[in-house]
Amino acid sequence: MTFPDPDLLHPIQGTTRVVQLRPLIAAQEAVANVAAGRFTYYDDPEHATAFLDRNILYNFGFSGARLEIGSFCAIATGARFVMPDAMHAMEGVSTFPFAILGGAFAEALDLGAYPFPQARDTVVGHDVWIGMEALVMPGLRIGHGAVVAAHAVVTQDVPDYAVVAGNPARVVRRRFTEDEAARLVALAWWDWPLERIAAAIPALVRGGVPALEDVAARR
């Protein structure tokens, strides 16, 4: 039995518009604060291989925050992630970052002394679908199995297996009940060996939680 290669940059024969993020990130040693799990891909007919530059915004490294994307995620054209380095200090009268211009402005107050908001990692769970032109703001968690609609602006955490849409994004429906979602998270099928995942595909695509639990029980 032959399985797809999670470290092949262009996994679909005959097209370069789809890139797997894990090998793309591995090829760029300068990007140390971004990680993606196996088989997670980005689809873009023009700029697929420029994902790290065009779709991860303000990743200057000042904050030390990370972007962690799970396995088996599908990211559509133009979806973007804003890193915490984009944030301005808002505790004082002005939000202007004088220090970045250097000279006397930087001497007056070093950028490291600005009261920036506390930076948190942005974490995207496993099996997440992010639609076209969606925007994910810094420091959020998007739960496992979630769906982010096209053009949504995500400003708060997204629960497991929730569908969010709009600006700001709001939960419009739950894909499963709270109990079912918890059972799916416990199964963690995305961590299974490829042989088991292949055997589970009918249950994953056409079945429900009990069907996947049956597959899990047949170890």
From TrEMBL:
Pfam families on file: Hexapep (PF00132)
InterPro entries, A to Z: Hexapep (IPR001451), Hexapep_transf_CS (IPR018357), Trans_hexapeptide_repeat (IPR050179), Trimer_LpxA-like_sf (IPR011004)
Listed transmembrane segments: none
GO molecular function, one term: acyltransferase activity
Domain of life of the native organism: Bacteria
Coiled coil: none
UniProt keyword tRNA processing present: no
SUPFAM superfamilies: Trimeric LpxA-like enzymes (SSF51161)
Key word Cell membrane present: no
Keyword entries, A-Z: Acyltransferase, Repeat, Transferase
Annotated family: Belongs to the transferase hexapeptide repeat family.
Protein name: Acetyltransferase
UniProt source species: Falsiroseomonas bella
